[in-house]
Task: structure prediction
Amino acid sequence: MTMNDAVLAEESLFGCILVSPAETVGTARDILQAGDIAQEHIRAAYSAACALLDEKAAVDAVTIQERARADGTEISSDTMRAAMRLYVTTANVAKLAEIIHSRAMERASEVIGGKMMSGTLAPTDAIAELQQLVAGQRRTLPTPAEDATGFLQLISDVAEGKKSLFSPTGLARLDAILGGGLVESGVITLAARPGVGKTVVGFAIADTVSATGKKVVYESLEMSRNQLWARRVARMTGLNYGDIMRGISTTQKQYWTDITRAMTVLQQRNLVINDRPASMDDIEAHVRSMGDVGLLVIDHMGLIRPSISGSLYEQTTETSHRLKRLAQSLQIPILSLCQLNRQNENRQDKKPNLSDLRNSGAIEEDSDAVIFLHRPALYWEPDRRPQPWESQEMEFIVAKNRHGMVGSISMDFVGWNARILDRSEGGGFSEAHETTPFEQVVG
Result:
């Protein structure tokens, strides 16, 4: 696209604004922000028309001129008359807006490239800014009227069930504490010591969200996709995860029937797994290439390849900040699994707290919610510990939450078949050997 194309498009749009402001703004607003327009007087006319329409005031060439003047830009009557004489039709407004927006993105890209070449912008920050442009982020701030209109539409859509600001985890009591589940545009950190069950919980949540029809990207930086599939099948069938990995005899026909039924259900869910080493650049590329992703799960944050040189603290801080920017840019929840340091093991009370987060305070700062997992039986004497097929308590400790309460709940953890189950009504634990029928499996 040449500069002349964009200039002509802006001048044509100017005539449309003056002759048919309501129709023009109604069409262009979904594509074009005032800041995309290069010529000051046309930008002022567009902003004035938007403001007058938001205020439900009279809008025509005269009121647009007056509002632009009040906002600090003088548009001469001769300039306006010339534009109105060139007016032909509003039928091409959407195309004009696309041309202007595309040129605005080119200008912004040129500015970013210039900063990077001059050394005033780091390459990783340049990539983030370019990705924000591609994602369609605004270059100018919305007006209060635009904010109000957008918010009213949002809460109306939520009330009518057209939209939800949370993705349920499948664990109803955890969702109640969180305020509804995993919050849109938020980073939710799920942290525990190694071996407690982060992957079991993280993958169970991923499966639950994918069962609702949403796309889920699972970045498995520790376990292979085959190990994860074995856990999925174990969770759905109630079979022993270890037996599936070792190989179930072909003579056990009922087990194979259950596995086949499980695979029929699971392969229909849009859950995409990456089990290769990945940097934040790789992860962002995976998610953006999928389009319309409903949840990103990182398993786990400490294994993301660093994008900068420096200390572990600096690398962890940079990764944490980029996860937050990605969640906000794509307006999706990110569930970030995270390992804790060993401090809790040296305390009499083994329950983790926020000071146990590893390597950087940025993890706590950037997280909308921090959930710790704690299994008391791990610290019992060996002869008292439950067998793998037996239920044991897993405590979910919500230590930070911007959108709901803090607190803790106890669930059943069954390592045998990678399940997280609700406590029974009597407060005890459910029987792990009782296979849940497919029709009753949540997620």
In short: The first strand starts at residue 166 and ends at 167. The longest helix spans residues 93-118.
